[in-house]
């Protein structure tokens, strides 16, 4: 097995813990894994931003009237957006290297297993969609790949209207933009949204608000990176 990022040969580590069991194969070498920055320590309970307070200022703003009008229960993110992660996501998303996404599978599923054990078994994974135009450019939807890692039924309930890339918009533009999603089905099961990067939270909340309008009782999110 070779590292999906640097192509170095991965030599399995043999120790007393895995000597008599079949360990899961790794997709990255130890040197590349060390360059990841996993989110640790105190964080906002709502969005995973590093925070000494239970809820960061941004999340308090989403709940404008203090009456729980935020459609998103919470987002949990796995990694910080450091230089290594920026390079990997760039090659994964914008240069169409689908296999790079498999590098994150072990971390993404571990986060789900640790943080969302309380979700009902009928919870559905809903990936944030790409527009048809963006899908043609990239060849795959990275959010759908992340959803496939979870032990849940995946349903592509949402469609997206084509528009300017989120990465090119300012924070103010992202928050004030019109809802780019459409949904045609009613949904009466809990949903966990999957996406690669949480930046302002506007994308997830646009999706969550539509799902709630169509009968979804609760909406959560699991994102790979907290930007």
From TrEMBL:
Signal peptide: none annotated. It comes from the Bacteria. Belongs to the ComF/GntX family. PANTHER family: DNA UTILIZATION PROTEIN YHGH. This is Competence protein ComFC. It comes from Virgibacillus subterraneus. The lineage of its organism: Bacteria, Bacillati, Bacillota, Bacilli, Bacillales.
